[in-house]
Every structure is written in structure tokens, then in C-alpha cells.
Amino acid sequence: MRLSAVKGTFDILPDDQPRWRHLLDTTARVLGRAGVDEITTPIFEHREVFEKSVGESADLVVQKEMYTFQDRGGRWLTLRPEFTAGVLRAFIEHGMHTWPSPVKLWSAGPAFRAENVQRGRFRQFHQVNCELLGGDSALLDAEAIALLVDTLSAAGLPGVHVKVGSVGDPEDRERYNGYLREALAPFERELSDTSRERLRLNPMRILDSKDAGDQALVAELLRPLDMLGNAARGHFDEVLAALERWGITYEVESAIVRGLDYYRRTAFEVHHAGIGAQSALGGGGRYDGLIAKLGGPDVPGVGWAFGIERVLDALSGEGVGPVERRRPLAYLVALDAEAVGELAALARRLRAEHRVEHSYTPRNPGKGLRDADRSGARLAVLRGSRERAAGVVMLKDLRTGDQQSLDLSELPDALRRSAGASQDDSARLAATRDH
Ligand code: HAM
User: Fold this and answer.
1) Which residues line ligand 1 (CB under 6 A)?
2) What spacing in Å lies between the alpha carbon of 8 and ligand 1's midpoint?
3) H-helix or E-strand containing 390?
4) Looking at ligand 1, which residue's alpha carbon is closest to its atom 1?
5) Are 207 and 254 in contact (CB under 8 A)?
6) Is there a contact between 287 and 84 (Cβ–Cβ < 8 Å)?
7) Residue 62 to residues 138, 154, 201, 242, 326, Cα–Cα distance (Å)
């Protein structure tokens, strides 16, 4: 039997890692400057954490998309389909409502949804998630959106498309859902199966249907934004005003509907032309009432998540980010058995400063140099009986072909000089790219 990865999961290979790391480093830097600290929560939680938070009708997530299982102790556990619920569970458990407010937290890691696999839609995927907890001011909604835009921009996607809407307060949603139920009841049989189920559970989600028949049925109907109460309307206007003041371009989306149930008032998404119109890079919104629903104090919050794979897909489409794999500065070639041990020990010492690799078996000079070349090293260091007798190594610059015999004690300095020169090269390269 040939083993393969589970459908909808994938390996992140060494060549993909620099881009991945660049995105996370950028995220940590941009969010850190805004006072957002990192939190790591478990990958699985008690099933109730998600059942209570994402909601019964949430895009069928609870019924169909969660990986829920019973462990040997008979406990029901769920692999997180998203981060918000776990972060809020931690907020409550550690009494973070007593910390200076707002409490700002970001996380990154895998999430799991048993979805139909397609481009940008996986069963194990990764998110960067950010939550701002403890304020109901519209300024925090705007800050959340700005942080998402700023993070993506700093990572190399300056032109994302922001869509902002409002799903209103609970009573507005109730009113709107009642309106949709009434308007669509006569056409129930014409709706797609999913939308028929949504008509029962959460009619608003029908607006998000990709089915052409459903879309035609709702085309002329009022949108959630048309039926906002005064409080939600005022809040929404303040969010937009702040975005305008900060020069963040956005589009008002009157029918923004998110796949999760917990949103109140502001909801937003960020799209990018490069990855297909249907899929969002990220999204989020305000979820006042959710912490209380999970058994905590009634603290309001707003947040977002972006899909790391989707952002990387967009970045590679733009040709952005470091794509080069890290290469060793030096590759040590052992020309006889004794040199294998000597060079392994030498490599350990040199690794305090540089990336250094070596041969594990004796090689002849031709094969050894080919190994060094394949590793991508800048320098090859050769040692055999002749070098040992003279107390030297042979140092070869693989780019220029220059080679010299060097006293062993001089090697660290020679590597340092060469590493400095490589850094100058990349700085020059980066400078030419930037202009
Ligand atoms: P979400 O819209 O469900 O929101 O997911 C956010 C992002 O995660 C999506 O825009 C997408 O980029 C990525 N994503 C979701 N599902 C998949 C999948 N199956 N494969 C690949 N990427 C995917 C949330 O998860 C909310 N917790 C965001 C939030 C935080 N709201 C408030 N705070």
C-alpha cells in the first residue's frame, strides 16, 4: 500500500517555509506594534466550546463540518474549525477581563473543517486570527479592519479589496429573517436544498448562496443593511467614518453574510483578485454577547482571521516574498574516513554562527564538490590526508572557482568574511528590487 496524505490536507515543504515564515513574522511585527500579543490555545477543545459559539445554524458547520470525536475517556472533543471560540474560552478561564482593556490577542495555527475540497478550501488549513476584546466603540471595529489591511499590505498585498457591512443587532437580524421568511415562503420549493434548510434555520444565509436560482429569487429583496435599527446604523456609520479618516478604501456590502452565526453589527471580508472572486482572504466582525454566551462576563469583542494558504496563494501570484530556500554558507567535504569525524566536529563549532553541512561518508574530490554544489553552498571546505598532514583545509569559492589552502585556525574568519560579503550582495539585490 502506498501511503498518501488525507484528502484536503497537505505538506508544507521546505521550499514553502520561507514565505510562510515571512508572513508570520510580518504579522507578529504589525500586530505587535498595535499592542496585540500572541496567544496559543489547544488545537482541540471540548465540543461544547464550538457548539455554543459557532451556532446551530452556522453554515452547517456544527452539523457537518466539525471533526468531533470521543476520546478513550469518553470525552467529546472537537478539532478547532476556527480560533475565536478557543481564544474566548481562554479569555474567560484566565480572567482576562481584569487585564487592562482592550485585551488584544493574535494566534496562528491549523484549523479543521470537513469541507468539500477545492482551490483554497482544505480540510486542514491554517489561519492567522486576531481578537480585540473589551470595547464596544466603533473605533475598535475600524482598528480591527485596519490591522487586517495593514498586515496583508506589509506582507506584500497592498491592494486588497475590503467589503464592510452590518448584520445589525439581534433584534434587527430577527426582523430581517422574519422579512425573508415571509418573502420567500411562496418560493420555498424553488430554493436549492441548502437554502431551503437555511430558510428554516437562518434565512439570512440564503443571500450568500452561489446557486443561480436562489440568487434570482433574492435579487430584488431588501438587504440586511436596509433594515438596520438606529443603534446599529449609527455604529456602522462611525466605523465607515473612521476608515475614511485613515484612508482605508472599502466597499459597503449591503448583504454581507458570514458563515458563522455569532456576528453582531459590523461584518467584513477582504478579497484579492488573484485567488478567484468567490473566496475571501479573510473576514471577521463584531460578536458582542458571545463571551457571555460561553459563560463569561458580558465583554464585547471584534476580530478576524485570514487563511494563510489563501494569502500565500495571492502572494505567489504577485511574485512577492522570499522564495529562496536557505542554503548553507559552507559544505565540508571529507576526503577520507578520518576526515568524516573531524569535519562533523568542525561543523558543530561553525554552526554557532553559520549554516554548515558536511558529508557523512568519505567522498572523492569530484563527487564531494558536486554534493557541495547541490546543497547550494557558497563555499566548499575539503579535507583529506594531505591537508591533515599540513594542518590545513582547502577552501573553494563555488561561485568564482577560487581556491586556497588555509590554516584550520583561519577558517572561522574566512567564513565570517564570506558571510558578510553574501549579506552585502543580498542587501544590494534588495535595494535594486526596491527601486
Ligand atoms: P471564516 O470566514 O470562517 O472566519 O474564516 C476566515 C478565513 O479562513 C477565510 O476567509 C479563509 O481565508 C480561511 N478559511 C476558512 N475555511 C477554509 C478552508 N476550508 N480552507 C482554507 N481556508 C479557509 C473565521 O474563522 C472567524 N473565526 C474569524 C473571526 C475571528 N471572527 C471574529 N474573530
Assistant:
1) 82-84, 113, 115, 120-122, 125, 127, 129, 131, 259-260, 280-285, 287, 303-307, 309-310
2) 16
3) helix 385-390
4) 283
5) no
6) yes
7) 30, 35, 12, 35, 42
| Distance of alpha carbon 77 from alpha carbon 68, whole angstroms | 6
CA angle 28, 126, 284 (to 5 degrees): 75
Contacts of 357 (CB under 8 A, 6+ apart): 328, 330, 331, 332, 347, 375, 377
In order along its 435 residues, the chain shows pLDDT tens digits of: 889 999 999 999 988 888 899 999 999 999 999 999 999 999 999 999 998 887 665 554 545 789 999 999 999 999 999 999 999 999 999 999 999 999 999 999 999 999 888 888 999 999 999 999 999 999 999 999 999 999 999 999 988 999 999 999 999 989 999 999 999 889 888 999 889 888 888 888 888 888 899 989 898 899 989 999 999 999 999 999 999 999 999 999 988 877 788 899 999 999 998 787 667 999 999 999 999 999 999 999 999 999 999 999 999 888 876 666 679 999 999 999 999 999 999 999 999 999 999 999 999 999 999 999 999 999 999 999 999 999 999 999 999 999 999 999 999 999 999 988 766 655 554 444 443
Distance of CA 202 to the CA centre of its chain: 29
Distance separating alpha carbons of residues 80 and 83, to the nearest angstrom: 7
- Using the 8-state DSSP alphabet, how is residue 2 labeled? -
Name the helix (H) or strand (E) containing 232. helix 230-245
Pocket test for ligand 1, best of 82, 145, 287 (most atoms within 8 A of CB): 82
Q: Tell me the backbone φ, ψ of residue 79, rounded to 5 degrees.
A: -70, 130
- Nearest 5°: CA angle at 237, between 198 and 246? 115
CA-to-CA distance for 362 and 342, rounded, in angstroms? 12
Q: Do residues 380 and 396 touch, judged by C-beta distance below 8 A?
A: yes
Q: Which three cell numbers stand for residue 142?
A: 475600524
How far is the centre of ligand 1, averaged over its atoms, from the C-alpha of 308 (Å)?
Answer: 10
- Domains of the chain, first to last: 2-168+228-318 (3.30.930.10), 330-434 (3.40.50.800)
